[in-house]
Amino acid sequence: MVNIAVFASGNGTNCENIINHFAHSSQARVTLVVCNKAQAPVVERARRLGVTAAIVPRQALNDPATMLELLSRHHVELIVLAGFLLMVPAFLIQAYPHAIINIHPALLPRHGGKGMYGPHVHEAVWKARDKETGMTVHWVTEQCDGGGIIAQYRVALSPADTPETIAQKEHELEMKYFPQVIERVIASLQRQQA
Ligand code: GAR
Predict the structure, then answer these.
(1) 102: helix, coil or strand?
(2) Residue 40, CA atoms < 13 Å, CB-side half-sphere
(3) Distance separating alpha carbons of residues 88 and 158, to the nearest angstrom
(4) Angle at which helices 13-22 and 41-48 pack, to 10 degrees?
(5) Residue list, ligand 1 pocket, CB within 6 Å
(6) Within 10 A of 129 (CB to CB), how many other CB atoms are there?
(7) Distance between CA atoms of 90 and 176, rounded to whole angstroms?
(8) Taking CA 108 as the corner, what is the angle to CA 152 and CA 133, rounded to the nearest 5 degrees?
């Protein structure tokens, strides 16, 4: 059984979807949600589903003793960033080699980097008149949105799309495919451990 920690900063629709997806799995489960904002809806979503939600402000996130103790107390082996807006500190990346992944709401390397999150990304896709958008799951490195790509899923756009409809189309991909990509990452982690 692989224990997953989901890191999130906001609404938490992905977090909820991932918790539910693995709720009856014999392969993995979400044992911890880490959120940097006490008021974020994701905190309530996690607690409602019976998952511990730890409030970890920036200062605590950057403190190795605090974070490593928290993650080891929950036996975390895989960290999934789902709308987490802080940079993951280098000590965590070193402590979890090839075990931290992030979802980005565009087809990286397009529309990535600092400041590109949530609605800003969909706005940029709309302004660029892109003919398609999509989601990217990638390894987390010290470079913002720069780690190796694990999976991408695409959806066509039309001139009638708005930032809101682009967001909706992309969100559907996240709900459908992100848990499946996490399953594949877990299977490869388990192969490495075997
Ligand atoms: C998701 O669309 C995710 O791809 C995006 O934030 C949203 C979080 O939604 N992440 C980024 O923009 C990271 N740069 P949620 O809180 O409802 O899961």
Answers:
(1) strand
(2) 25
(3) 35
(4) 20
(5) 8, 10-15, 82-83, 103-105, 117-118, 121, 174
(6) 9
(7) 31
(8) 65
Sequence-ordered list of residues with C-beta below 8 angstroms from that of 44, at least 6 positions apart, any chain: none
**Kind plus residue range of the DSSP H or E element containing 71:** helix 64-73
Both tokens assigned to 47? 């607690």
From 10, 1, 3, select the one nearest 103 (Cα to Cα). Answer: 10
Helix (H) / strand (E) element for 68: namely: helix 64-73
C-alpha–C-alpha distance, residues 82 and 93, integer Å: 16
pLDDT of residue 193: 81
pLDDT at 192 over 90: no
Backbone φ and ψ for 42, nearest 5 degrees, come out as -60, -30
DSSP tag of 129: T
What's residue 50's pLDDT? 98
Q: Which of 13, 155, 172 to mutate to test the pocket of ligand 1 (most atoms within 8 A of CB)?
A: 13
Q: Which of 175, 139, 173 is nearest to 155 (CA)?
A: 173
**Is residue 109 scored above 90 in pLDDT?**
yes
Question: Which amino acid type is present at position 77?
Answer: E
